[in-house]
Amino acid sequence: MSQPAIITVAITGAIPRKADTPAVPVTPSEQIESTQEAFEAGASVVHIHVRNPDESPSSDPALFGRVQEGVSNHCPGMIIQFSTGGRGREQSERGKMLYLKPDMASLATGSVNFPKQIYENPPQLVDDLASTMLACDVKPEIEVFDVAMLYNAKALADRGLLKRPCHVQFVMGIPNALPARRKLLEFLIDELKDLMPDATWAAAGIGRHQLEVNEWCLELGGHVRTGLEDNIKFDKARLARSNAELVARVADLCATKGRRPAGPAEARQILQLPPARKPTAK
User: Fold this and answer.
1) What's the pTM value of the predicted model, to 2 decimals?
2) Which CATH topology does 3-271 take?
3) Per-domain residue ranges for the chain?
Protein backbone atom coordinates (compact mmCIF):
# COMPACT_ATOMS: atom_id res chain seq x y z
CA MET A 1 0.00 0.00 0.00
CA SER A 2 1.12 3.56 -0.65
CA GLN A 3 2.36 5.60 2.29
CA PRO A 4 -0.07 8.21 3.64
CA ALA A 5 0.87 11.90 3.51
CA ILE A 6 -0.80 14.46 5.73
CA ILE A 7 -1.74 17.56 3.72
CA THR A 8 -1.93 20.79 5.72
CA VAL A 9 -3.68 23.78 4.15
CA ALA A 10 -2.61 27.23 5.34
CA ILE A 11 -5.66 29.18 4.28
CA THR A 12 -4.97 32.84 5.06
CA GLY A 13 -1.76 34.04 6.71
CA ALA A 14 -1.00 37.47 8.12
CA ILE A 15 -0.27 39.43 4.94
CA PRO A 16 -3.15 41.81 3.99
CA ARG A 17 -5.39 40.79 1.12
CA LYS A 18 -4.81 42.90 -1.99
CA ALA A 19 -6.89 43.70 -5.03
CA ASP A 20 -4.96 41.15 -7.08
CA THR A 21 -5.31 38.38 -4.46
CA PRO A 22 -9.08 38.04 -4.03
CA ALA A 23 -8.89 34.30 -3.37
CA VAL A 24 -7.51 34.77 0.16
CA PRO A 25 -10.31 34.09 2.69
CA VAL A 26 -10.41 36.65 5.50
CA THR A 27 -13.77 36.66 7.29
CA PRO A 28 -14.75 33.62 9.42
CA SER A 29 -17.42 32.60 6.90
CA GLU A 30 -14.92 32.83 4.02
CA GLN A 31 -12.37 30.83 5.99
CA ILE A 32 -14.86 28.09 6.89
CA GLU A 33 -16.02 27.77 3.28
CA SER A 34 -12.45 27.72 1.94
CA THR A 35 -11.42 25.12 4.51
CA GLN A 36 -14.36 22.88 3.64
CA GLU A 37 -13.39 23.00 -0.04
CA ALA A 38 -9.77 22.18 0.83
CA PHE A 39 -10.90 19.35 3.12
CA GLU A 40 -12.94 17.84 0.32
CA ALA A 41 -9.88 18.13 -1.96
CA GLY A 42 -7.72 16.11 0.46
CA ALA A 43 -6.46 18.32 3.30
CA SER A 44 -6.64 16.82 6.80
CA VAL A 45 -5.08 19.75 8.75
CA VAL A 46 -6.00 23.44 8.58
CA HIS A 47 -3.60 26.15 9.77
CA ILE A 48 -5.60 29.19 10.87
CA HIS A 49 -4.86 32.91 11.19
CA VAL A 50 -7.76 35.27 11.83
CA ARG A 51 -8.25 38.92 10.89
CA ASN A 52 -9.94 41.95 12.43
CA PRO A 53 -12.68 43.72 10.44
CA ASP A 54 -9.99 45.98 8.96
CA GLU A 55 -8.16 42.77 7.86
CA SER A 56 -5.24 43.29 10.26
CA PRO A 57 -3.94 40.16 12.06
CA SER A 58 -5.93 39.33 15.20
CA SER A 59 -5.64 37.20 18.33
CA ASP A 60 -9.33 37.59 19.19
CA PRO A 61 -10.50 34.26 20.67
CA ALA A 62 -14.04 34.94 19.43
CA LEU A 63 -12.83 34.96 15.82
CA PHE A 64 -10.73 31.83 16.30
CA GLY A 65 -13.69 30.19 18.00
CA ARG A 66 -16.06 30.95 15.13
CA VAL A 67 -13.71 29.42 12.59
CA GLN A 68 -12.99 26.45 14.86
CA GLU A 69 -16.68 25.74 15.34
CA GLY A 70 -17.46 26.07 11.63
CA VAL A 71 -14.61 23.78 10.59
CA SER A 72 -15.60 21.21 13.22
CA ASN A 73 -19.17 21.22 11.94
CA HIS A 74 -18.41 21.12 8.21
CA CYS A 75 -15.17 19.09 8.11
CA PRO A 76 -15.66 16.05 10.35
CA GLY A 77 -12.46 15.05 12.13
CA MET A 78 -10.26 17.66 10.45
CA ILE A 79 -7.27 18.66 12.59
CA ILE A 80 -7.52 22.32 13.60
CA GLN A 81 -4.27 24.19 14.13
CA PHE A 82 -4.10 27.78 15.41
CA SER A 83 -1.22 30.09 14.53
CA THR A 84 0.64 31.74 17.41
CA GLY A 85 2.89 33.60 14.95
CA GLY A 86 3.99 37.11 15.71
CA ARG A 87 3.39 39.14 12.58
CA GLY A 88 1.14 42.06 13.54
CA ARG A 89 0.40 40.80 17.06
CA GLU A 90 1.81 41.68 20.47
CA GLN A 91 3.72 38.91 22.23
CA SER A 92 1.29 38.95 25.15
CA GLU A 93 -1.62 38.22 22.78
CA ARG A 94 -0.20 35.39 20.75
CA GLY A 95 -1.44 32.56 22.98
CA LYS A 96 -4.63 34.09 24.34
CA MET A 97 -6.89 31.80 22.24
CA LEU A 98 -5.23 28.52 23.24
CA TYR A 99 -7.81 27.92 25.97
CA LEU A 100 -10.17 27.02 23.10
CA LYS A 101 -8.13 23.80 22.86
CA PRO A 102 -7.54 23.38 19.14
CA ASP A 103 -5.93 20.08 18.23
CA MET A 104 -2.62 21.80 17.44
CA ALA A 105 -0.92 25.20 17.44
CA SER A 106 2.23 26.49 15.78
CA LEU A 107 5.28 27.09 17.98
CA ALA A 108 8.45 28.77 16.70
CA THR A 109 11.32 27.93 19.06
CA GLY A 110 13.58 30.89 18.34
CA SER A 111 13.91 34.24 16.62
CA VAL A 112 14.88 34.83 13.01
CA ASN A 113 15.43 37.74 10.64
CA PHE A 114 12.73 38.15 8.02
CA PRO A 115 13.44 40.50 5.09
CA LYS A 116 11.85 43.54 6.75
CA GLN A 117 11.50 42.58 10.41
CA ILE A 118 12.74 40.36 13.19
CA TYR A 119 10.39 37.50 13.99
CA GLU A 120 10.86 37.71 17.73
CA ASN A 121 10.42 34.59 19.84
CA PRO A 122 12.42 35.26 23.03
CA PRO A 123 13.08 32.31 25.35
CA GLN A 124 10.49 33.30 27.95
CA LEU A 125 7.75 33.65 25.33
CA VAL A 126 8.62 30.25 23.85
CA ASP A 127 8.50 28.69 27.32
CA ASP A 128 5.18 30.38 28.10
CA LEU A 129 3.54 29.29 24.85
CA ALA A 130 4.85 25.73 25.23
CA SER A 131 3.62 25.59 28.84
CA THR A 132 0.17 26.85 27.85
CA MET A 133 -0.10 24.28 25.06
CA LEU A 134 0.93 21.55 27.47
CA ALA A 135 -1.68 22.66 30.02
CA CYS A 136 -4.42 22.85 27.36
CA ASP A 137 -3.45 19.51 25.75
CA VAL A 138 -2.68 21.22 22.45
CA LYS A 139 -0.01 19.53 20.33
CA PRO A 140 2.61 22.00 19.06
CA GLU A 141 3.71 22.04 15.47
CA ILE A 142 7.32 23.12 15.98
CA GLU A 143 8.14 25.67 13.29
CA VAL A 144 11.81 25.57 12.33
CA PHE A 145 12.86 28.71 10.43
CA ASP A 146 16.55 28.29 11.26
CA VAL A 147 18.66 25.26 12.20
CA ALA A 148 19.12 26.32 15.83
CA MET A 149 15.36 26.08 16.36
CA LEU A 150 15.56 22.30 15.91
CA TYR A 151 18.05 21.98 18.78
CA ASN A 152 15.96 24.38 20.86
CA ALA A 153 12.98 22.08 20.36
CA LYS A 154 15.00 19.10 21.60
CA ALA A 155 15.96 21.09 24.70
CA LEU A 156 12.31 22.01 25.36
CA ALA A 157 11.29 18.35 25.07
CA ASP A 158 14.10 17.33 27.43
CA ARG A 159 12.80 19.88 29.96
CA GLY A 160 9.30 18.46 29.71
CA LEU A 161 7.77 21.49 27.99
CA LEU A 162 7.02 19.53 24.81
CA LYS A 163 5.26 16.19 24.91
CA ARG A 164 6.82 13.49 22.77
CA PRO A 165 6.48 12.43 20.01
CA CYS A 166 7.01 15.91 18.59
CA HIS A 167 5.90 17.14 15.19
CA VAL A 168 8.31 19.45 13.34
CA GLN A 169 7.79 21.58 10.27
CA PHE A 170 10.77 22.98 8.37
CA VAL A 171 9.95 26.33 6.74
CA MET A 172 12.05 26.90 3.63
CA GLY A 173 12.40 29.72 1.15
CA ILE A 174 12.02 32.86 3.32
CA PRO A 175 14.93 35.23 2.57
CA ASN A 176 17.45 35.38 5.46
CA ALA A 177 16.14 32.09 6.90
CA LEU A 178 16.34 28.48 5.66
CA PRO A 179 16.87 28.42 1.88
CA ALA A 180 14.92 25.93 -0.20
CA ARG A 181 17.69 23.40 -0.83
CA ARG A 182 17.06 19.67 -0.92
CA LYS A 183 20.45 18.88 0.61
CA LEU A 184 19.59 21.13 3.55
CA LEU A 185 16.23 19.41 4.04
CA GLU A 186 17.94 16.02 3.97
CA PHE A 187 20.41 17.26 6.61
CA LEU A 188 17.57 18.54 8.80
CA ILE A 189 15.72 15.23 8.53
CA ASP A 190 18.88 13.33 9.53
CA GLU A 191 19.41 15.62 12.50
CA LEU A 192 15.78 15.21 13.57
CA LYS A 193 16.13 11.42 13.45
CA ASP A 194 19.23 11.65 15.67
CA LEU A 195 17.71 14.11 18.13
CA MET A 196 14.10 12.90 18.29
CA PRO A 197 13.79 9.60 16.41
CA ASP A 198 10.08 9.25 17.18
CA ALA A 199 9.18 12.68 15.74
CA THR A 200 7.09 13.25 12.62
CA TRP A 201 7.96 15.99 10.16
CA ALA A 202 6.73 18.15 7.32
CA ALA A 203 8.14 21.05 5.34
CA ALA A 204 6.66 24.19 3.83
CA GLY A 205 8.04 25.92 0.77
CA ILE A 206 7.37 29.65 0.56
CA GLY A 207 6.54 31.49 -2.66
CA ARG A 208 7.91 29.93 -5.83
CA HIS A 209 9.42 27.09 -3.78
CA GLN A 210 6.10 25.62 -2.68
CA LEU A 211 5.76 22.90 -5.30
CA GLU A 212 9.37 21.70 -5.26
CA VAL A 213 9.33 21.42 -1.46
CA ASN A 214 6.05 19.49 -1.70
CA GLU A 215 7.80 17.07 -4.07
CA TRP A 216 10.82 16.65 -1.78
CA CYS A 217 8.60 15.91 1.23
CA LEU A 218 6.67 13.24 -0.63
CA GLU A 219 9.86 11.64 -1.93
CA LEU A 220 11.60 11.72 1.47
CA GLY A 221 8.71 10.30 3.47
CA GLY A 222 7.42 13.44 5.14
CA HIS A 223 4.17 15.38 5.19
CA VAL A 224 3.25 18.46 3.18
CA ARG A 225 1.81 21.94 3.48
CA THR A 226 0.23 24.08 0.82
CA GLY A 227 -2.20 26.99 0.66
CA LEU A 228 -2.60 30.64 -0.16
CA GLU A 229 -0.72 31.77 2.97
CA ASP A 230 2.51 30.40 1.55
CA ASN A 231 2.06 31.09 -2.12
CA ILE A 232 -0.63 33.15 -3.83
CA LYS A 233 0.83 32.25 -7.24
CA PHE A 234 -0.33 28.87 -8.55
CA ASP A 235 2.20 29.20 -11.34
CA LYS A 236 3.89 32.02 -13.24
CA ALA A 237 0.91 32.53 -15.51
CA ARG A 238 -2.07 32.91 -13.20
CA LEU A 239 -3.37 33.23 -9.67
CA ALA A 240 -4.65 30.26 -7.73
CA ARG A 241 -8.42 30.34 -7.61
CA SER A 242 -8.65 28.79 -4.17
CA ASN A 243 -6.94 26.86 -1.41
CA ALA A 244 -8.74 23.79 -2.71
CA GLU A 245 -6.96 24.12 -6.06
CA LEU A 246 -3.58 24.05 -4.33
CA VAL A 247 -4.59 21.07 -2.18
CA ALA A 248 -5.84 19.19 -5.23
CA ARG A 249 -2.49 19.78 -6.92
CA VAL A 250 -0.67 18.14 -4.00
CA ALA A 251 -3.22 15.33 -3.78
CA ASP A 252 -2.61 14.56 -7.46
CA LEU A 253 1.15 14.77 -6.90
CA CYS A 254 0.93 12.10 -4.19
CA ALA A 255 0.02 9.44 -6.72
CA THR A 256 3.13 10.17 -8.79
CA LYS A 257 5.34 9.71 -5.70
CA GLY A 258 3.82 6.49 -4.38
CA ARG A 259 1.90 8.34 -1.68
CA ARG A 260 -1.75 9.08 -0.93
CA PRO A 261 -3.48 11.83 1.07
CA ALA A 262 -4.14 10.77 4.67
CA GLY A 263 -7.74 11.05 5.81
CA PRO A 264 -8.46 12.92 9.05
CA ALA A 265 -8.69 9.80 11.24
CA GLU A 266 -5.46 8.44 9.74
CA ALA A 267 -3.72 11.81 10.21
CA ARG A 268 -4.76 11.78 13.88
CA GLN A 269 -3.21 8.34 14.27
CA ILE A 270 0.04 9.43 12.63
CA LEU A 271 0.30 12.52 14.85
CA GLN A 272 -0.94 10.61 17.91
CA LEU A 273 -3.87 12.94 18.42
CA PRO A 274 -7.10 11.91 20.13
CA PRO A 275 -10.42 11.78 18.27
CA ALA A 276 -11.92 15.14 17.31
CA ARG A 277 -13.37 17.06 20.23
CA LYS A 278 -16.07 19.64 20.39
CA PRO A 279 -14.83 23.26 20.58
CA THR A 280 -14.49 24.78 24.05
CA ALA A 281 -17.19 27.37 24.77
CA LYS A 282 -16.11 30.86 23.74
Assistant:
1) 0.95
2) TIM Barrel (3.20.20)
3) 3-271
